[in-house]
Design a protein that fits this description.
heterodimer, A: Rossmann fold, 8 strands, globular, B: 7-stranded mixed β-sheet, binds thiamine diphosphate, binds iron/sulfur cluster, binds magnesium ion, Pyrv_Fd/Flavodoxin_OxRdtase_N (chain B), oxidoreductase activity, acting on the aldehyde or oxo group of donors (chain B), Pyruvate:ferred/Flavod_OxRd (chain B), oxidoreductase (chain B), THDP-binding (chain B)
């Protein structure tokens, strides 16, 4: 059986020392090994950003796509081959700005893949511009007088979009994050994991310490019930989205493929796909 | 007796004009006639003039007719807009309901029949189209039995009552017409007997869809748009029987990226759209080229730019399809020569995409995509699937931790293991990369990888990159694509001069060495196309030096070329 070391490759990440993304990489490697996956059974699709480089740092089938488009590629892979474990990943700009349309629709579509956002509330790769999750007033190169727009609330948006699995954590809590990713991979449907991953180079406000002080673990909330939409919404509102843990899960919901009776639910990859003589004749007859 | 008649039905959109044309033409196709239809419609659902023009012939036809013999009118506008197209002595059959009139200056016959009133008496005004068809049948001396069969196919599941009333409506129309045609020479409206060859009657979008299924497509992702939607609709209807499915995505970027993902995983997937959607897909098409992931995108061209003429004929995406992506990628752009060929060329598109691991754009145009027409049946024994260097089974162990997916090779193509296989792990990225797929922006590697990718295009690509019609040797060479091919063939057959016609199927890369003997031998080369700039002409000129001998015939008013227009244009150029 594979260990997390089998998910390592020969590439040395080019992330800045101290970048939150390192720990997310480690948590994914650990979660995959702990779930009994082999590296070749995993397809990891990323967008563009510092975070997007992840697909090249984990030994698995890796697909580094275009900015904001990891989700469509990942869903396409899963629709071709349901036997693969598919993870999509990228930054907050990738998933909540240029790719926001795909994010909302992937949430509502509920294809059985896992989406891990590495949220640093800034654009890292392009050297420090405001992001959709940057707090109001946040000063960056493109918001010298402070951000004038309200930040997007990814978890609330996910609730509103029909999500069936929503989790959030900190990259510094590798253990907790690993457990969450394991559950996300086990979830039958689309699992969304937002991870606060500090950018030590361009975001001096939302630091490791800042996140620790501002996030609330749902385990510490007495009456929290992650299957109860009303409670989830109440606490998301109360804590401004800063919850930690598996915030919401609907274990009953059917995944996209489970809705389609005729859908070949294991594998749509055939070396020599065939159309029988009879099917050919029947379909051609409909053109008469 | 005639070898050819054009019948046209018109009225307000949403009034059943479509189904009237459908019932009439399908029946005639089943009788054995060759048909070519053209729909005039606009992008609204209810209201606005629409008409369905059906050319019926005892011989193959692949062009819109020059004029009309019979016009069936459900409103005055139909007469006002279309009567001038009637031949001398042509007949208008119009509904009494709107008190039809026709310009006295026109030498045509107006026959008024109470379509709506009669249908109401029989049970429902919905059947006014059957009354009109019955009347047309009498005029053309077609036995109603042929239409009864059609009525049965259409309405059997709605119950015997409905079948019976529709038959009554047909009979009523037939009888009412019988009272009015005494003074006409009915020989002018009667067709000679058809041949007994087996025939299909379908739109180009159906041929493309059926081709895709035969090519092995089991998953499709698409976003609706005219005139491409029928492709996704066909796939939605028929993929379930093969265990496949279709996702209607949030936009075209998602659609093309899902197709890329699915193809990367070893499936055969594609998407279809029109100009606006293709504009959105450009970055992704570049990703397919750079990552060497097979991709097929169907572009059913319509009138541009922007929303342009969304329901009208044009071929103005050619330049964008050939050159649209940023950076240099190898790309193949194909154009089926007719509806029958669309089936085979679609399958070839999937094979080429996979053999050369690159994006293939399969072009169509609105008239080919939506104009229902007769085609020879498709031959399953000609269906060939070639998966190129895609690897489907576990690979042998190797020393490096990543498989060298982008190894430099002579033909530019390297082995492509699909995810899930042992020892096939590699990386895929739109960033310039090493042979194992990990990013590398170094100068030397860049050159090696770029040369490798671009080298693919120097292979022999399509088996038959163009077809030669008309006279094999002549002074005049015509070059056309897609639905224009049929019009050119017909126009040339009417000319006394010898003309060679090339139906270009592989637009890019242009098969210039194979074309050269034809080009060099021509005193005049005429490119005929539906756009303002002469886009195909420009691409020819970029590849071929004899510019002073190259002329264009251009049309961009949204309507398809007619044979007599083309005859006049050619004469204008060569005389
Ligand atoms: C279509 C397109 N537009 C813009 C860019 C430039 N770009 C690359 S990454 C990026 C934003 C990165 O921010 P984020 O997604 O938050 O990732 P991070 O670097 O913070 O991990 C931008 C704007 C691009 N690559 N493609
Ligand atoms: S710029 Fe920020 S996000 Fe990018 S690698 Fe450095 S620390 Fe990480
Ligand atoms: Mg970011």
């Amino acid at each position: 059986m594979a260990t997390f070391k089998d998910f390592r490759n020969h590439i040395k990440p080019n992330w800045c020392p101290g970048c939150g993304d390192f720990s997310i990489q480690a948590a994914i490697q650990k979660a995959c090994a702990a779930n009994g996956l082999e590296p070749e059974e995993l397809a990891l699709v990323t967008g563009i950003g510092c975070s997007g480089r992840l697909s090249g740092y984990i030994k698995s089938y890796g697909f580094h796509s275009t900015h904001g488009r990891s989700l469509p590629v990942a869903q396409g892979i899963k629709m071709a081959n349901q036997e693969l474990t598919v993870i999509a990943s990228g930054g907050d700009g990738d998933g909540f700005a240029i790719g926001m349309g795909h994010t909302i629709h992937a949430l509502k579509r509920n294809i059985d893949i896992t989406y891990i956002v590495m949220d640093n509330q800034i654009y890292g790769l392009t050297k420090g511009q405001t992001s959709p999750t940057s707090d109001a007033g946040f000063v960056t190169k493109t918001t010298p007088d402070g951000a004038k727009e309200n930040p997007i609330a990814p978890l609330k948006a996910a609730m509103a979009s029909g999500a069936t699995f929503i989790a959030q954590s900190l990259s510094s809590d590798i253990k907790g994050l690993t457990a969450i990713i394991q559950e996300a991979l086990n979830h039958k449907g689309f699992s969304f994991v937002n991870v606060f991953s500090p950018c030590v180079t361009y975001n001096k406000i939302n630091t490791y310490d800042w996140y620790k002080e501002n996030i609330v673990d749902i385990a510490d909330l007495e009456d929290y019930d992650n299957a109860d939409r009303a409670i989830v919404s109440k606490y998301l509102e109360e804590h401004n989205g800063m919850l930690k843990g598996i915030v919401y899960q609907d274990k009953e919901a059917k995944s996209y493929a489970e809705h389609i009776e005729s859908y070949n639910d294991t594998n749509n990859v055939h070396e020599t796909p065939e159309v029988s003589e009879n099917d050919f004749k029947e379909l051609m007859a409909s053109f008469k | 007796m005639k070898d050819q008649i054009t019948w046209k039905v018109g009225g307000q959109q949403g009034e059943g004009i479509e189904s009237t044309g459908e019932v009439f033409s399908t029946t005639l196709n089943r009788m054995g006639y060759y048909l070519y239809s053209y729909r005039h419609f606009s992008s609204r659902i209810k209201g606005g003039h629409t008409n369905n023009n059906i050319r019926i012939s005892t011989r193959e036809v692949r062009a819109v007719a020059d004029n009309t013999n019979i016009l069936v009118a459900f409103d005055q506008q139909t007469i006002d807009v279309n009567a001038h197209e009637l031949v001398t002595g042509g007949v208008i059959i119009a509904d009494e309901k709107f008190s039809p009139t026709v310009d006295d200056a026109l030498d045509v016959e107006l026959i008024v029949i109470p379509f709506t009133e009669t249908a109401k008496e029989i049970g429902s005004q919905l059947m006014k189209n059957m009354v009109a068809i019955g009347a047309s049948a009498k005029l053309m001396d077609i036995n109603l039995e042929h239409f009864y069969e059609m009525v049965h196919t259409l309405f059997a599941r709605k119950g015997e009552d409905i079948v019976e009333s529709n038959r009554k409506a047909l009979n009523a129309g037939y009888d009412l017409m019988a009272e009015k045609v005494g003074h006409l020479n009915l020989d002018d409206f009667k067709l000679n007997a058809p041949d007994d060859k087996e025939k299909l009657f379908l739109i180009g979008n159906d041929a493309i869809s059926f081709g895709a299924i035969n090519a092995g497509v089991r998953f499709m992702a698409a976003y609706p748009i005219t005139p491409a939607s029928e492709i996704m609709e066909y796939m939605i209807k028929h993929l379930p029987r093969f265990g496949g499915t279709v996702i209607q995505t949030e936009d075209e970027i998602s659609a093309v990226m899902m197709a890329i993902g699915s193809n990367y995983a070893g499936g055969r997937s594609f998407t279809s759209s029109a100009g606006p959607g293709l504009s959105l897909m450009m970055e992704s098409i570049g990703l397919s080229g750079m990552t060497e992931t097979p991709l097929v995108v169907v572009d059913t061209m319509r009138g541009g730019p922007s929303t342009g003429l969304p329901t009208k004929q044009e071929q103005s995406d050619i330049m964008q399809m050939v050159y649209g992506t940023h950076g240099d990628i190898p790309k193949i752009v194909l154009a089926p020569s007719d509806v029958e060929d669309a089936f085979y060329t679609t399958i070839e598109a999937f094979n080429l995409a996979e053999i050369y691991q690159l994006p293939v754009i399969l072009l169509s145009d609105l008239q080919m995509s939506l104009g229902k027409q007769t085609s020879d049946p498709f031959d399953q024994s000609k269906v060939e699937i070639n998966r190129g260097k895609t690897v489907f089974t576990d690979m042998e162990a190797h020393e490096t931790d990543y498989f060298h997916r982008y190894e430099d090779t002579e033909d530019g193509v390297s082995r492509r293991p699909i995810p899930g296989l042992k020892n096939g792990i590699h990386h895929v990225t739109g960033v310039e990369h090493n042979p194992d797929g990990t990013p590398n922006e170094g100068a030397e590697n860049r050159k090696t990888q770029m040369d490798k990718r671009m080298r693919k295009l120097s292979n022999q690509l399509m088996k038959e990159p163009f077809k030669v019609h008309g006279d094999e040797e002549s002074d005049v060479l015509m070059l056309s694509i897609l639905s224009v091919n049929g019009v050119v063939d017909e126009a040339v057959s009417r000319l006394d001069e010898k003309v060679t016609v090339i139906h270009l199927k592989q637009i890019y890369p242009m098969p210039i060495e194979k074309l050269r003997p034809y080009l060099d031998g021509a005193k005049k080369i005429i490119v005929i196309e539906h756009n303002y700039n002469g886009q195909l002409t420009s691409i020819l000129k970029m590849n071929y030096a004899g510019h002073e001998r190259i002329a264009s015939i251009l049309k961009y008013d949204g309507t398809p070329f007619k044979p007599n227009e083309v005859v006049a244009e050619i004469k204008g150029i060569i005389n």
